[in-house]
Amino acid sequence: MMKIIQLFLGFLLLFTSDVGFGCGPDFQKFLLSNRYQTLIKSHEGRFDELIRLNYNDYEAPKIPYNAKIDGLDHIFDQTKRKVKIEAQYLSTEDFKLLETAKETEPFEDAKAMLDQMENRIAASYYEVTLKYYDYREHTPERFSQVPYPVFTADNTPWQLWALFNIARGQLHFESEESIRQAIKGFKEIIALVEKGIYDTQHVAAGSLGYLATAYLYSGQYDQSFKTIFQLKALGSTDYQQRILDNLRYIMRYLSDEMRQKALSQPLTRSLMIKMSYSHFNGYDKLHEKVYHDLLSLNEGSMDGFEYLANYAYRKGLYEEAQELAAKSDTLLAKSVLAKLAIRKDDIPLAQSLYGQIISELKNDVELNADSCALLGESALIIASQGDFLQAFEVLMSTEGQYWADVAYLAENILSIQELKKFIDNNKQLNNNQPVDYFGMDFQGIERMGIQNNSYIALKDVLARRLMRDGQFDLAAEYFSDYPREIAQSYILLKNKAEGSQGEQRARYLWELALLTRKRGGHLLAFEGSPDWYMYNLNFTGESDYIEPDHDGLMSEAELLRLSQYKKAPRMRWSYRGLAAETAKLAAEYLVPQTPDYEHLLCKAASWVIDQDEYKAKEYFKTFLVNAKPVEDRKLFGRECSTPFAAD
Predict the structure, then answer these.
(1) For 43, which DSSP code?
(2) Contact 405, 32 (CB under 8 A)
(3) Cβ atoms within 10 A of the Cβ of 113, count?
(4) Which of 147, 132, 223, 129 lies closest to 180, judged by CA?
């Protein structure tokens, strides 16, 4: 089957050079290292990208909102012993009465204190507040029998706070009537603030959040989610978590009958369908339950079959996946059908489906992670056909999402001339900010934002490849600012060394070796294996990313190029090897058996002894031939003095 796949997807070459998409940042993907599995693997959506509903359809009320406050509960974290006082509304006598009331129990005795207050609005508010915090001792009816009509003519925060506590108190009882009263109360608060009452503590925003909960408790699921989207339109940053919590509540805690009712409401059903497509660890049984609920609905009133098809495919229910995907004409449905076709060796069908997918993607200006995954799959198949530049361009269009694959092609498959031409001809290079470097020590350097600076990062990849190829001056033209400074120092030292003789040449070569050892990662390191510059040189996994003939999808052309261009040594941190060789070369310009000669060879061995033991032994043998014997050979390469330290 794999050999057949290599022959069939020439049609993907229609993906021309005008590709340009915006894909969100994501963790690094590795497509080319396991090609067949990449093709048949199901797409696992992320919920934050699946709820991309147009929340602007749900206009937010015109109320103030503090974006820093999403939890809302902590705004009202007063207790019976600690209630926020607006002192400007209270006389000294009223303040003393209030403090006494707060320390008095039971509620009836505290109310007697409040009745003596001159400020009746404040007294009524605190009566509501104290009763709210004692709500468990009262019936819903008695709780609602508070003197809140006094607030109807009020235009102060006392009114909002009192109404808010009344509504929250009703919500706690969770009876049908009390929830109805709570909904009425929260809506009244929002209406008052929209009319202009001064909302100092964002009570209206808190009411909007509680209103979503009240709708959920009352079985008005669509209305609950619409209110959450109003929160999003208002500026809330925790609306997404609220949606997840509500969905999981419906899935986990409602009876089968109530869940079926929830799924009969269009917005709720749409979100539940999308959630069945997303993959959440620990919720698989819930997903399965919702999946079967959705299948039992009237098909004529439901869309979103592609999400269910993807779920069925992920669960290995291939016949069901086929039937469900055939009912949809979306990209996701076509992707599922294409994967099923590949499993069945139906190459013409898979060929046609991928052609349709790519045609639609070319017209899409805002892609999510799943759309980018389709681009990645396309690039994989294009590469298998031997059109490496086309595959490279498609991968670059995802703005760094498949940077590991970009690096593999840039360093091991494309020629230097092809890579340089791509960079020189790409106008986007001039529109990116430089890659951000922090710190000066190579071990602490962090390059951030590959996703947003992939073209600039690619220029550094080319520059380091040119350095490794000996084209130093040309390399300096492509480096970012900080590596360019190092490259200029490197070139200057190299020129000085080549223009000197004897001990002076050895000194310059030693400086060059030291610079290569300390800063060589920025000048010479491979983006992928064996150095892993993309991970700030700190990745300690396998030294090779790609091995020949993965799943039979690596063409003969790719194998040929891999053998032709892949020149990375097996040693981890390969630039250390060059630093060691430069130090050894410096020693050749000194008289054997001198201290500096010994120190240079010892330093050379120390830089490779833990990565290339054989090379370290070679340096030691050179030392034994040309220098006097040492008493403790185990210290060679472990404890070394600095050459030319006397200077």
Answers:
(1) P
(2) yes
(3) 19
(4) 223
Name which of 333, 315, 644, 377 is nearest 506 in CA terms: 644
pLDDT average, residue stretch 166-194:
86
Mean per-residue pLDDT of the chain: 76
Task: Give yes or no for a cis peptide into 106 (omega within 30° of 0).
Answer: yes
Would you tell me the crossing angle of helices 284-295 and 239-253 to the nearest 10 degrees? 70
pTM, to two decimals: 0.65
Both tokens of 234, joined, read 């208002």
Question: What is the C-alpha to C-alpha distance for residues 541 and 538, in angstroms, rounded to an integer?
Answer: 9
- Give how far Cα 295 sits from Cα of 323, 392, 422, 551, Å: 12, 41, 49, 36
**Among candidate residues 368, 342, 365, the one with its CA nearest the CA of residue 353:** 342
- Mean pLDDT of the region 263-271: 86
Q: Report pLDDT digits (tens) over 344-397.
A: 878 678 767 877 887 787 666 566 667 777 888 888 877 877 889 988 988 887
- Give me the phi and psi of 594, to 5 degrees please: -95, 155
Q: Amino acid identity, residue 409? A: L
Residues, the chain, total?
Answer: 647
Instruction: Tell whether the torsion through CA atoms of 103, 108, 111 and 112 is positive or negative.
Output: negative
**Three-class DSSP labels, 473-485:** HHHHHHCCHHHHH
Q: Do 411 and 457 touch, CB atoms closer than 8 A?
A: no
Q: What b-and-e string marks burial along 590-625, b requiring 16 or more CB atoms within 10 Å of the CB?
A: beeeeebbbbbbbbbbbbbbebbeebbebbbebbee
pLDDT at 150 over 80: no
For residue 363, the tally of other CB atoms under 10 A from its CB is: 6
Partners of residue 436 on adjacent β-strands: 448
Residue-level pLDDT at 153: 45
The rounded distance, in Å, linking the Cα atoms of 190 and 549 is: 65
Q: In one letter, which amino acid is 626?
A: N
User: Is the Cβ–Cβ distance between 29 and 401 less than 8 Å?
Assistant: yes
